[in-house]
Amino acid sequence: MMLFLICMTGFAGVVDSAAGGGGLISLPAYLFAGLPAHYTYGTNKFSAACGTTFATARFLKSGALDLKVGLLAAAGSFAGSAAGSHLAVLLSDGTLRLMMLCILPVAAVIILTRWKSPDHDPGVQPLTPARAVLAAAIGVGIGCYDGLFGPGTGTFAIIAFSTLMGFDMRRASGNAKLLNLASNYASLATYLASGLVVFHIAIPCAISGIAGNLIGSRLALKGGAKVIRPMMLVVLVLLLGQLTTEML
């Protein structure tokens, strides 16, 4: 079972670093392995935070980040994620599963209807007050969702940055990583304080996730929209598949 988790978290890292939605792979894998829902969330946050750290560093090094926008969104995400995580800890396993079932079709509709982004990178744009507020608002909203629920967070962040901030897919994905990094660490702090991380599982999965994130970020930076869009379609299929499974 450990080998299964390592393989799945590695694959989740590849998908998440390029298109978001890695939790749609890793969370069901942890649940299938028999972890209770709250321990699944905590253990997943540990491995996801480690992988996202390396992916963010690669995007930053490549220049595929609007750093001012990214930092504002990350700050908002940190606050939103902490609030969402505190709420998640208070909810029962059954309530969390019911929320997952309700959110998945909404996620699918958003991804289907918001499927546009600029074809070319507009570069770093001036940070006007309006753009600063928008960046922070994106961070708070997506961070809260990430702390409370999780799956598809990176995908929603890419969509938000591309449609609302006008970024191309590479820059949207890079800024989504920075936002995700902040929300992951905010959530992880809550789960660590609550003793909900299973370290003998989380550490090997984190190593696998780091490798997957490095592979995925490299593919995204080289291929751009040609790689990211199809992988977002994979996330959509996983969303629909998970919904179908929950309904059976």
TrEMBL record:
Signal peptide: none annotated. It is a multi-pass membrane protein. Keywords: Cell membrane, Membrane, Transmembrane, Transmembrane helix, Transport. One of its GO terms (cellular component) is plasma membrane. The keyword Cell inner membrane does not apply. The keyword Transmembrane helix applies. InterPro entries: TM_pro_TauE-like, TSUP. The chain crosses the membrane at residues 69-91, 98-115, 135-167, 188-215, 227-245. It is found in: Cell membrane. Belongs to the 4-toluene sulfonate uptake permease (TSUP) (TC 2.A.102) family. This is Probable membrane transporter protein.
